[in-house]
Amino acid sequence: MKNPDNFTHIDEKGRAKMVDVSDKKVALRAAKARGYIILNKDIIGKIKDNQLEKGDVLTVAKIAGVSAAKKNWELIPLCHQIRLTDVDIDFRILEKENKIEAVAKVKGFDVTGVEMEALMAVSISLLAIYDMCKAVSKEMRIEGIELLEKTGGKGYYLKNYQNRRI
Q: What CATH number did the domain enclosing 111 receive?
């Protein structure tokens, strides 16, 4: 299979390849992603009261998500290693809906975007919550993982970084 449409991740012989970003300029890149884990009321209460035997669920989930963002390039085969400058994950317990929302914000100065790192941070933080709660109940569901915002790149270089906040 040739590459008639000039796809960036396919070489002239039709094989998968990493995109060459050598000619791109370094810029502040930022992304925000979100996802949810659906839990039962008992687990929500135990998380709120820090009563799970594995410890502080949300702190562990945050550390797991930050670590995952930093290792994204090792886990997704064609992703570039990014110089991250900030990874933050916030959780919101939505008691009426029996779920926890995770929102990851990631920033870095590099030649390519950080959206995969934000998505990875959310995904792994939610999986860490699942892991810490599975002894209480396995009736959990992760859903709604999505990219909310992405900035940086074309037309957005170092001179503009102070005026933008994600």
A: 3.30.70.640
Q: Please give the tally of structural domains in the chain.
A: 1
**Alpha helix (H) residue ranges in the chain:** 41-48, 57-75, 115-133
Closest CA to 89 of 52, 128, 50: 128
User: Which residue range is the domain that position 56 belongs to?
Assistant: 34-151
Indicate whether this model's pTM tops 0.70.
Answer: yes
Tens of pLDDT, residues 109-152: 987 889 999 999 999 999 999 999 999 989 999 999 999 999 98
- Report pLDDT digits (tens) over 59-87: 999 999 999 999 999 998 888 888 999 99
8 Å CB contact between 149 and 32: yes
Q: How far apart are CA 89 and CA 118, in angstroms?
A: 9
Whether 131 sits among the annotated catalytic residues: the reply is yes
Q: Is residue 61 part of a domain?
A: yes
CA atoms within 13 A on the CB side of 139: 8
CA distance 80 to 102: 24
